[in-house]
Amino acid sequence: MAIKPYQAKMKRVSCIDIGTNTALLLIADLDPKNGTIIPVYHKQTIVRLGKNVDAEKVIDPEALQRLIDSLSDYRSLSDEHDTETIIAVGTSALRDAKNHHEVINEVARKTGITIQCISGMVEAELTFSGAVAGMSNIPDLFTVIDIGGGSTEISMGSVRAVTESVSMDIGSVRLTERFFSTLPPPPPEFEAAKKSINELLSKSILPFFTARKHVYGVAGTLTTIAQVAQGLKHFDALKVHNFPLRFNDVHAFLEKLKESNLENIISLGIPEGRADVITMGTLILHQFMRLLGIEHIHVSIQGLRFGLAQKELLRLQGNT
User: Fold this and answer.
1) Mean pLDDT in runs of 10 for the chain (320 residues)?
2) How many CA atoms lie within 13 A of 31 on its CB side?
3) 281 CB-near residues (< 8 Å, 6+ apart)
């Protein structure tokens, strides 16, 4: 990708979202005058930081090294693009790990990047604003769901403020490790996972019923299903962003995944780092849509990174 020259009167930032499964980078120009975020460069890396964190509550040395390698790359890309500021946050895996302070310190020592470990509520609010940043015709009341590797955040509100938000320990990596011994999962394991998801969702989703007509979904599970639903073998951001993903498509995909081994799933064009957890991620989405009676979800390729950029833009404008 050609590097865009730095634009005067703007601030170029790198926003990094360190999740349970992936580390995502957004380099963007922030224009305080016009209130816009102009994406310059994107990259995502499967780091599987949360491998075994659900059971062990520790980020292991191999996962830490994968994170350091990824952030060293992101540091180089940020320098190459003349980024002024790097903003990095860690989410579910980092929150759960007993050694997260050691991880943060080691990353800072090796890469010069300081990670802030944010709460599930802060993650939900930032993802909420990021999901629809730059979109037009945003409804007065809408919901955003973020299905991550370690947790799922659901938020409701308007472009002005979040009115309801919840963060649950329901994630594609966490629950795959907890319930599935193989792919395809044996029916008893699949049913046990579905029962657990239903119990956790049922405790939290009732307030979101009023905004079930306008729902946006972010993160890898949603974008992957949107890719497959369109018959795409490779990710195409322009075709995936704002795609209306129907419940019927999610249901059909889940039925296929219930019978698919890892090799079958990869053959659909799903990368190896996501293929082993997409069945669980799809089950989480399916149950969320089924329980609330949601007919379709608009998929957003944005999310937390854009929420970080939006927050920094507001700071530059003197609004925070």
Assistant:
1) 57 95 94 90 91 89 96 97 96 92 96 94 90 84 92 90 90 94 96 96 89 92 93 88 95 96 92 91 96 95 92 82
2) 12
3) 147, 172, 220, 221, 224
Is CATH 3.40.50.720 what the domain over 11-120 is classified as, yes or no?
no
Domain extents in the chain: 11-120, 135-299
The residue count of the chain comes to: 320
> What's the rounded Cα separation, in Å, for the pair 159 and 170?
26
Q: What does the block give as tokens for 263?
A: 């090799």
The number of angstroms, rounded, from the C-alpha of 36 to the middle of its chain's C-alpha atoms is 22
Q: With CA atoms as reference, report the closest residue to 133 among 194, 201, 65, 216.
A: 216
The CATH H-level (homologous superfamily) assignment of domain 135-299 is Exopolyphosphatase. Domain 2 (3.30.420.150)
Q: Which residues contact 138 (CB under 8 A, 6 or more apart)?
A: 132, 159
